[in-house]
Amino acid sequence: MSSASLCASLTIEATLSLTLFMFTVILLSVPMEILDTQRKVQTVLEVTGRELGWQVYRTSHTVHPAEMEAGKAAEAGEKGTGGWSELPSGLILQGYLKEKIQTAGGNKVSNIQCGASRVSEDGEWIDLRASYQVRLPFSVFALDHVTLTSRSRKRGWIGAEGGYFSEKNASEPEEKWVYVGRDSTRYHLSPSCHYISNQITAAAYADVISGVLRNSGGCRYKACRYCGKTVSAGGLVYILPSGEVYHGKQDCSSLAYYVQKVRRSDVEYMGVCSYCGSG
């Protein structure tokens, strides 16, 4: 083979290799471009859904002036906010979505359909849907586009009347507080209830055994099943004023109740203690 033929062969191979390499790079970039376009469309739906949720709040609740100003400032900081005077729906909403999606997707997006987008009459549900076509950089077996669908479903603001800035109604009753202990099955009206009280007192073992010291109910103390056998004659034991047993260790696990103060509305399902709640 002559040197001229060898050079020609190498040139052809290099040309084919470069062509295949460029084709592979373009082919691999297509899915990334499609995903990026889909992300932009989804962002449009999410932002619009948030704007509609705020509009539902403004049109159906008494808004405090401070909260209204905060909402206006947020709208001013977001490019392309609707600024609607009333809740949009139907063709107005579809036209707005089409315009925003076309702006975000550019010439890569076509045949945008938003007819399935809905806002419920009470404003509670906001369901935005968009079907569109993304153009491919080259045709693949006569296929020059990919059809995609994006959706964003949100709930309108349905919180308390007046919003976060509203003042508390003076006629509303104040929240009541109760007490619960570790592993409690009832809530207690008093932290000194004997079921959760942890006012530990040291006493002579002989006085407890002989019955000189009794609980507030007048009954003798019994040995704790966990640490009662560790007590020696002449030693100290630990008792609770309303307890039923004496303990050989001050850190006995049965003494650790960890009384907590909680709102009654949070634990009302437990029911009140029969001892401190009977009065």
UniProtKB/TrEMBL annotation:
Keywords: Membrane, Transmembrane, Transmembrane helix. The lineage of its organism: Bacteria, Bacillati, Bacillota, Clostridia, Eubacteriales. It comes from Clostridium segne. This is Pilus assembly protein. The chain crosses the membrane at residues 12-30.
